[in-house]
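Same chain as my last thread, 316 residues:
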Amino acid sequence: MMNPTANSRSTLTRRAFLRQAATTAVALQTLPILGATPKPPVRHRILCCDYEGNKIAIVADDGRVEWEHGIQTPQDCWMRPNGNALVCYRHGAMEITAQHEIAWEYRAPAQAQCHSCQPLKNGNVLVAECGMSRIVEVGRTGQIAKEIPIASKAKNMGHQFRGTRQTADGHYWVCLMDEQKILELSPAGILLREIPVDGYPHAAIRLPNQHLLVTLGPTKRVVELDKKLKVVWQIDGNNIPGNPLRLPAGCQRLRNGNTLISNYLPGPFLGKQPQAFEITREKRVVWEFTDHARFKTVNQIFVLDGSGGRTGKELR
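reply #2:
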C-alpha cells in the first residue's frame, strides 16, 4: 500500500472539494475575528420632560438622574448653550439654570395652555398658546415681540396646537392636533399650505431632505412624508414586538439616520411600556428608556451626547 506523503496529489473529486470548501467557509464565519472589539450598546444622556410627573430631568447614559427640577406639566424642552434648560409648561415658558434659578420667564394669559416652545436664532423664544389661537415670539425681557394668530376650529381649546417649529427660512410649522392637519406659514404668518394627516399630529419635523417626520399621537403612528407627502417610512401600533407605540409625542431624526421617539403612556399603559426608544430604518430598537420608578409620561427629549436630533440644528 502506498503511504501518502506531503508531495502526494490530492484524490478529492471536484464536487467533494467544493463541498469541503463551503463547509470551511461557514465554520470560519462563526469564529470571532481576532482583535475585533464588540460593538458597545447604544446609550444616551438626555434632558426630558415628564408631563404627569411634573418635572424635567437630566438622565445620564447609565440611567442615573443627574439633575431634576419640578415644574407643572412640562411639554417641550431644550438645552441652551449656556447650560440652562428651556422648557414650556401649562402657563408659559422659562429658562432654568443648573442651580435651579429662573434666568428668564414668560407668563402666558390665564386661559392659555402652552404645549410647545423653541429658541430662535434671533434670540427670541417661540411659544404656541392653546386657548389663545396664536403663536408668539417672546423677547429676552419676557415681552411679546411678535404675534401670529392661527385660525382654529378645535372644539377643545386645549387641543389646538402641539408641536410648533420655525425653520431656517423663517416659516412656521404648526400641528393642529384636533383638526388633523399641519400648517406651513410664511414669516409674516400667511398660510402657505395645509397638510392633512391621518391622525392627531403632535410633532412635525422638517428633515434636511425636506421630508416631514410626523408623530400622530393617539393614532399610534409615526410617519415620514416625502416632498409629495407620500408615506416613505412608518411604524404603528404593535409594529415593534415588545415595544408597542402608545402615544408617540416628540420625535427627532438622529445623525445616524435612526429615529428617537418619546412614547407617552396614557391611562392603562402607565408604567407598562418603554417611555422612549431609538429605532433604525429597518425597525430595530437599539436603545430604550424605561424608568417607571422615577418617571411617568415622557413626552419630549433633548439628546445631550452629540448624536444629533434636537440640538439646536433643527432650524433648517
